[in-house]
Design brief:
- This protein has about 290 residues and is of the alpha/beta class.
- The protein is built from 10 helices and 12 strands.
- It has 2 domains: about 130 residues, Leucine Dehydrogenase, chain A, domain 1 (Rossmann fold); about 150 residues, Rossmann fold (3-Layer(aba) Sandwich).
- A 6-stranded mixed beta sheet has the order 2-1-3-5-6-4. Strands 9-8-7-10-11-12 form a 6-stranded parallel beta sheet, sandwiched between helices.
- Strand 8, helix 6 and strand 9 form a beta-alpha-beta unit.
C-alpha cells in the first residue's frame, strides 16, 4: 500500500516540499507519495481529520496554520508544545502526533551554512508567527544573550516576548528578551547592537502579495551582520540583495527548508534523510 504524506497550507504555490520530499522517498524506493494539500481556513479541520486513517502517514504544516493545528492533533511533542507551533504530523496507532522540526532545522542551517554560533550573541527577529516562535526557542536554547522582536502588529510581538520569557524562566535560560516597534529609529538601533537578524515573515516570497519587497533596506543593516532570510523562493530574495548592498553576510532559507524537511522525513520513515538528494531536487525546482 502506498503511504500518502503531504503539505497543508494556504496558499501553496510557493512550496518546494513535494519536489524534494518525493525525491527522498524515491531515493530509497519507499512506497510514499508526497502531495500538496492546499486548504482554506474553513477546510483545515477536514484536512487534518483525513490524516487519521490509512493510507495517510502524516503531513507537513506551513503558513498560516502552524499554531492552529495544535488544537487539532491528539498529542504534541514536548518541544512543539513549548514553541507553540507544529509543522510536522505523524499518524501513530490511529492518533495524530504533532512535532516541530523548524527549531532544530533552523539551528542546523545556522551553524552548517552560516557558520554562526549563537552563544553569547544578540539577535533581532522580524515577525511573530509560528516561524518566529521556533527560531526564538532555538536561539534561546543555543545560548543567545539578547533577543529583540519586531512585528508590524506590536501586540503579537509582546505576546511572543511573554511566551519566550516564560520558557526561558522554566528552563533557566539567561537572556534579555524585548519587543520594539516597527519604526526606523528603533530598528536601526536594535540592529546596530546585534550580530544576527532573522526574517521570520513571508515578505519577499514569490507568489505572495509582498513579492519583490524587502522587510529591511540596506541603510538599516550594519556591515558584517549575518542576515538570515527564512524565505527561500526566490533564492536571492530582496532582503538578501539589500544585505549584500550593505556589506552584510547573507544566508537564504533553502538550507533550513531542507533540514527541517529532512527531520520530518525521519519522523515518518525512521530512516536517515538523503539531504544531498533533497537539496539538489529543491534547487532544480527553483531554477527550473
Amino acid at each position: 500500500m502506498v503511504n500518502l504524506v503531504g503539505i497543508i497550507g494556504y496558499p501553496l504555490k510557493h512550496s518546494l516540499s513535494p519536489l524534494f520530499q518525493q525525491a527522498a522517498f524515491d531515493h530509497y524506493g519507499l512506497p510514499f507519495r508526497y502531495q500538496a494539500w492546499e486548504a482554506t481556513p474553513k477546510e483545515l479541520g477536514a484536512a487534518i481529520a483525513r490524516l487519521r486513517h490509512p493510507p495517510y502517514r502524516g503531513a507537513n504544516v506551513t503558513i498560516p496554520y502552524k499554531e492552529k493545528v495544535l488544537s487539532l492533533v491528539d498529542e504534541v511533542d514536548g518541544e512543539a508544545k513549548s514553541i507553540g507551533a507544529v509543522n510536522t504530523i505523524l499518524r501513530k496507532d490511529g492518533r495524530l502526533v504533532g512535532y516541530n522540526t523548524d527549531a532544530p532545522g533552523f539551528l542546523w542551517a545556522l551553524r552548517e551554512e552560516g557558520g554562526f554560533d549563537p552563544r553569547g550573541k544578540r539577535a533581532v527577529l522580524l515577525g511573530a508567527g509560528g516561524a518566529a516562535r521556533a527560531v526564538g526557542v532555538a536561539l534561546l536554547g543555543a545560548g543567545i544573550s539578547g533577543l529583540t522582536l519586531c512585528n508590524r502588529t506590536p501586540e503579537r510581538a509582546e505576546a511572543l516576548v511573554s511566551h519566550l520569557t516564560t520558557i526561558a524562566e522554566q528552563r533557566s535560560w539567561s537572556a534579555s528578551i524585548a519587543a520594539i516597534p516597527w519604526e526606523r529609529e528603533h530598528l536601526k538601533d536594535a540592529l546596530s547592537h546585534s550580530h544576527l537578524v532573522v526574517n521570520c515573515t513571508s515578505v519577499g516570497m514569490k507568489h505572495s502579495p509582498t513579492e519583490g519587497r524587502s522587510p529591511l533596506e540596506a541603510v538599516f543593516i550594519p556591515k558584517g551582520i549575518l542576515v538570515y532570510d527564512l524565505v527561500y523562493n526566490p533564492l536571492d530574495t530582496p532582503l538578501l540583495q539589500e544585505a549584500k548592498r550593505a556589506g552584510a553576510r547573507p544566508l537564504g532559507g533553502l538550507s533550513m527548508l531542507i533540514y527541517q524537511g529532512a527531520l520530518s522525513f525521519q519522523i515518518w520513515t525512521g530512516r536517515e534523510a538523503p539531504v544531498a538528494v533533497m537539496m539538489e531536487a529543491a534547487r532544480e525546482g527553483l531554477v527550473g
